[in-house]
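Fold it.
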Amino acid sequence: MDTKDKQIPDVLPACGVLSAFDEKDRRTLTAYGQFLRYRAEQILIKEGETQDCLYMLVDGVLHALHKVRGGATPLGAIQPGEWFGEINILDPNKASAMVVARTDSWVWRMSRAKLEEFLNNCPTLGCLLLLGVAEVLARRTRSLVAKLNAAWEISW
């Protein structure tokens, strides 16, 4: 079934960061954000613009891109169950990359204000969520360092 034919999800899926959350906990977290539908080629996040939301891709495929002279450099694909926006949810600022829907997609989005509300109202779940988001950030940082090291070794 195509994403455009799918109904709006009613609860976040139990995968990745949320695999330790039971359905009740996922429903609680779900209420602090909203599900958004994006069409293929639609821009979710514009590089250089203020960004203060945390996202989870529920269905579809997204691409993260970095603007360069004459186009964009692909940074990677975002698959269902993956989180993005984690840098700016922890350090609100301008987006360091652009995110574009590759296919019709469903995304769940939570603002920093709603994250703070969730942390105050559900501290145990909030800690689990932040630890999971920190793991995502750490994995991406390690991957970036590995790519930089490989590029550095080639340049010598």
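The first helix runs from residue 23 to 30.
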